[in-house]
Batch of 3 targets.
Target 1
Amino acid sequence: MQKFVIPSSGEKLQACFLSVKESKNLAVVHHGRGGNLYNKAFLAKQLIDRRLSVLVYDYCGYGESTGTARLSSFIPDGLAVHDFAVNELHYDPSRILVVGESIGTGPACAIARIRKCAGVFLQAPFTSLPSETKDCIPLLRVYPDWCFPQPRFENIEYVKQEHPPLLIIHGARDRQIPVFHSRLLYKAAREPKELVILPNAGHRNVGGADPEIFSGALTRFLGRVLRW
């Protein structure tokens, strides 16, 4: 494991690079709001077992990264890390898998919209941040989406456009981001796309509760989108 400090908007992002020998493929992981670069062990292992190197980082204000944690920094931070992977680690963009988890699916979709990548893997995503917020706080449903501050992370608008191969995995027992968000994303998305619902998984144990289903879906997807 190598540690890097990646500059972003005047701050310093802490990142870990887990290299797989002779692999030309890389997964850049944008973790969830409650996560950090040290608690992605299950996801990182799944990717490494399939011979992808992994680059995972903390947003500004998370973990050891400097600055203040705020949603407005997520996209600039993600772009800085993606560009670091291309310009400093010298990965071909056509071999980079963009991975987003929970709130990290917002920057993942935003980055995949403006940077070339091999595919997009969304774990426990939401259709948009206003929609997810309204699910958590029903009193806010009276407000139209434009009342919510930017970024609104309109994932559903991203998937409606032309995009690289898309894999969506969601736990059926997720109470934080209900699984219907993924169903709506899948329904709205263009091909190529795949949706996998894990029957026993909640929000924080995605994959761990249904490891065979999770692993099988990831193996099939990566076999289609990456060159080995």
Note: The chain is about 30% helix and 20% strand.
Target 2
Amino acid sequence: MNDTISLIFIVIGVVFDLFGCIGLIRLPDVYNRLQSATKSVTLGTCSILFGLFIKYGFSAIGMKALIAIPLLFFASTVAAHALIRGSYKSGIKLWDKTVIDDYKDVQK
């Protein structure tokens, strides 16, 4: 039973990682690409790690996977925010069909 549940989490994680990779290729600008990579790949990788935890339990592998989940979650979101802010401040333009630019008002 645990193997089936862990396999479901791992497959869901791989699918989310695949969607994140497709988003990196298909989306138009750096801001959309980073959002795709951060959101879907973080969720996918955390799902894979949780599937490993379910499979191996409280062994060394399971505990490392459980510890890696919050580290990955917080590190990837902070890194994406820093990359997007640096991109914006260095003058990389938004996509021409972008509807709103909330950060423009914060800069002033």
Note: The CA atoms of residues 76 and 82 lie 10 Å apart.
Target 3
Amino acid sequence: MAVTIRNLTAADIAAASDLQRRVYKAIPAFSQEQFESLLGHFPEGQFVAEADGKLVGIAISLVVLWDDYSLHHTWAEVTNHGHFDTHDMGGRTLYGAEVCVDPDCRGQGVGHALYEARRQLCRTMNLKRIIAGGRLPGYHEHAAHMSPEEYAKRVIWGDIYDPVLRFQLDEGFDYCGILHGYLPTDPEAIGNAALIVWLNRDYDPSRPTQLPPKDSP
């Protein structure tokens, strides 16, 4: 399957919201206003994946001052409850606020292409890293007899398979700990998330952060 990555536009909002509803049954999809806020604050950081003319994935991100959040934050805090006005070009961290892929297209490179688009954006903008709170969709099956910390460790060791954390580790992200209460509306993860980071090896602290050229994806 040939996948094309480009920036989200206003014309994509309905399809993107519909995709979220199909992927996450219990987690509310972004509203029209939320997508418009993302496009108003940081259009360069919003990606869609297309295949055969159909939107099959989205990746949402913003630039943040990481020291304002650090090891103990929630999705609501880092996005200001989905208003996304926490985007700050004075920051050096690209924060991944959302990724979802059409269930019918998983395992066909869509997620990898979206993650690569984020990595390229991080390099182009001379940002230091990408940080995100990754869902743990398999945790609810083990929550009765282990903590989310133990669950994540067992995923890393290969004893348990979690499709999201395993994918993120394979994409070169490092696991940094558990964010408790990160997304209370996520029943599969019991509200927890894995704090993950990818470091930009090309980061140059002597250079400023810069937006990508207008013709970039």
Note: The mean pLDDT is 95.
